[in-house]
Amino acid sequence: MERNDYILILEDDKFQQNILLTQARLLTDGEIICVESGFEALDVLKQKGEMPEFIVCDLQMPEMNGVDFIAKLSELDNEVPVVILSGVEGSIISSVLEMAKQFGMVNVATLSKPATPKKFEEVLSRLKDAVCSAPTSISYDEMSLDFERAFAENELVVYFQPQISVESGKVIGLEALTRWSHPQYGLLTPNQFLSELIEKDYGYALFKKVLDSAIEVGSFCHKQKQFISISVNVAPNDLLEDDFYDHLIAVVSKHNFPPHKLILELTENDICDEVASLLRIINKIRILGIELSIDDFGTGHSSLWQLVHGPFTELKIDKNFIDNMLESSKHMAAVNSTIALALSLELKVVAEGVETEGQYFRLKQLGCEIVQGYYFSKPLSQADLMEYMATVEGAY
Predict the structure, then answer these.
(1) 232 has which bridge partners?
(2) 62 membership: H or E segment, kind and range
(3) Is a pLDDT exceeding 50 seen at residue 396?
(4) How many Å apart are CA 209 and CA 198, to the nearest integer?
(5) Mean pLDDT of all residues in the chain?
(6) What is the dihedral of CA 389, 361, 94, 77, to 10 degrees?
(7) Torsion angle of C-alpha atoms 135, 141, 145, 146, degrees rounded to 10
(8) Fold topology of 142-394
(9) Domain ranges of the chain
């Protein structure tokens, strides 16, 4: 559905309605519609024929509650921004958020009642930024024949997100991230093409391209006396490619890049059955001095066995845990215990997806060592990165 300039609020309590109306009027000049159940909200969407600018949804309502409404909404439009606002316990709110994501909703945030105007505005601002920065949706069918051209025409480009030392506040690393500069659809993010690219067996080719570009940038930074580390994502199956080890050595040597400044982040959502072969290659990599990180810890197939028996040097806490840590006691406990576990195993711990000052200071209190996210910098093109690194005080 198309978007329209109105806000839809689902709240059956008149007092809460008035509070939300007051806060919403500060954020829009458009129409604000309040309803008291999911059925009424669906009727509004049907009559309007367009989705609102955003939706604020309580969970406890008569007739159709917020849980069922979100499930129905996902069938109509999975990109409309939704704020789940409720007074139920935090574990329920966070579970409903996960449900929404599993239904394919991509712009959802949560707030616990009572929500202050500052928190309300902050959450909506983050959702609006996410919507504005999201590229146009396209189907995989339209792209499936484009990958070969994308490689040939150098449309797949590398962006870099700075990693910040919590102790010093300095930039100490860069994570290499892929973008597709599509001639028709503009700049696409990995969630729009990566799964299809891997399915078409281009995953290893993409890793090689990113590795070479990332280390070239890292080498340039080192020549400027900016001795940052470079992090590159790699799937376990790519590690088992016949030429992986030799290719890795060749690229590092070509750019004269110190191995101990390269971090390979294993994407733990990929299952690898060849455990012995995987341990063989990652130990050879570690002997070279290259570091190993478990990416998105807690969301895939990682285990204590891997942490204990694998020669990992770093653990990255997934963005989903950081997103909800200030609103959910369970998420906070998960983040706290993960940091404690990493430190007790003498692993560096990195929090990704840090978007607010509150998240940053709480992570600092918990002992997190490295952070990255939009609070510090969005992923940057190579040109923008050079400007950023030249202006950040203490970046080297």
Answers:
(1) 264
(2) none
(3) no
(4) 14
(5) 88
(6) -30
(7) 0
(8) TIM Barrel (3.20.20)
(9) 6-133, 142-394
> DSSP H helical segments within 144-190, as ranges?
147-152
Let me know if 223 is exposed, middle or buried by CB neighbors in 10 A (0-12, 13-18, 19+).
Answer: exposed
* pLDDT per position as a tens digit, 237-289: 999 999 999 999 999 999 999 999 999 999 755 556 788 898 999 999 999 99
pLDDT score for 132: 56
CATH of region 6-133: 3.40.50.2300
Three-state SS sequence of 267-325: ECCCCCCCHHHHHHHHHHHHHCCCEEEEEEECCCCCCHHHHHHCCCCEEEECHHHHHHC
Please say whether the beta carbons of 298 and 337 come within 8 A.
no
User: Which of the four pLDDT bands, split at 50, 70 and 90, describes residue 210?
Assistant: very high
From 49-53, 128-132, 223-227, the region with the lowest mean pLDDT: 128-132
Q: Which residue has the tokens 């895939």?
A: 300
Cis peptide preceding 259, ω within 30 of 0: no
Can you name the residues that pair with 110 across neighbouring β-strands?
Answer: 84
Scanning the chain, the segments in alpha helix (DSSP H) are 14-25, 38-48, 66-76, 90-102, 117-133, 140-143, 147-152, 194-199, 203-223, 236-239, 244-254, 275-287, 304-309, 319-324, 329-344, 357-366, 382-391
Which of left, alpha, beta for 298 (phi over 0: left; psi -120 to 50: alpha)?
Answer: left
- Give me the phi and psi of 21, to 5 degrees please: -60, -45
